Amino acid sequence: MSETSVREPATSRVAAAPGVRMGALAERYGLVLLLGGVVAFFSVLPASSAAFTTGANVQSVLGSIAVVSVLAVAAVFPLACGQFDFSVAATSLVSSIVCAAMMSNHDLPLALAVVCGVGAGILVGLVNAVLVAVLRLNAFIVTIGMATLLPGLVQWYTHGVDLVRGIPRPLRDFGSLTWLGLPRVIWLVAVLTAVCWFALAHTTFGRRLHAVGSNASAARLVGIPVTALTFAALTISGGLAGVAGVILTARNGGGLVNSGVDLLFPALAAVFLGATAIDPGRYNVLGAVVGTLFVAVSVSGLTLAGAAEWVPAVFNGAALIIAVAVSTLLTRRRRGHDAAGSTSS
């Protein structure tokens, strides 16, 4: 009797292990599989198949995700430590205008203009960091306010006129031409993604950032510098948004006063979708990039299939809502497992 009671759990555990592993793999790579399914669907759909699989469309999709991908990665850093930065898209607009203005209005060389554009993003990030990390203001309110303030400043400075004069050809070529069959900008995005992924997934900084996001009070008790990490996350977010702004200038061939702000929600949708993949329940860089691809490929397929103009907007909004719901549930479950594990230990 006792021997049977001992053996049965062991047998059930062995039998269940492959199923558990398969479930974990499906959860981790479900979004990747869904992306593959979307690609396959639009590749065979008669209304979109002719154009969807062409090299021109692939280049168009990859080129279009360059700015959104960097904005999504920028948003991951504050989210990882439990904060929001809704100003990333507006920051990229400011950086784009600053970069273009340095060349168009002040005749500065390209390299210095790029530095100024990225520097403008870092400056916005520093302001957010001081207000949120040092003065302890609500990040949601601060960054929403910043997202409203910055486009107004752009309109004041430019008088609503795009800055397209004097943009050097090398920058425009970087935004429009290809290298080894892929848009040049996507290579920069790949390098940035790799660096940010390593920083968040494989360094003490990244582990501490996630610890703050999981439980800031507990992190503070074990000596983790919560304020400094929050400050760094928001500053990095601003700097990455500044890089996105320079890419935006290259893609547009100048500083367009109404460009970039509408990229906030696709970027957020990508981040929250990404929290359901690769490292489920945790905001992560690779998941955000996969989420960006999923949204861009889906919108491209819908457009080529002849969907009405309102369909992509509805898709983006629905994807954001569903992604927030799923990522929130996964985060709660992950924290519950972590708490149970710490209790049993």
UniProtKB/TrEMBL annotation:
rRNA-binding among keywords: no
Membrane protein topology class: Multi-pass membrane protein
Family annotation (InterPro entries): ABC_transp_permease
Pfam annotation, one family: BPD_transp_2
Places the protein is found: Cell membrane
Keywords, in A-Z order: Cell inner membrane, Cell membrane, Membrane, Transmembrane, Transmembrane helix, Transport
Transmembrane parts of this sequence: 31-52, 58-79, 110-132, 139-157, 177-200, 221-248, 260-278, 285-304, 310-330
PANTHER family: ABC TRANSPORTER PERMEASE PROTEIN YPHD-RELATED, ABC TRANSPORTER PERMEASE PROTEIN YPHD-RELATED-RELATED
Record-given protein name: ABC transporter permease
Species for this entry: Actinomadura meridiana
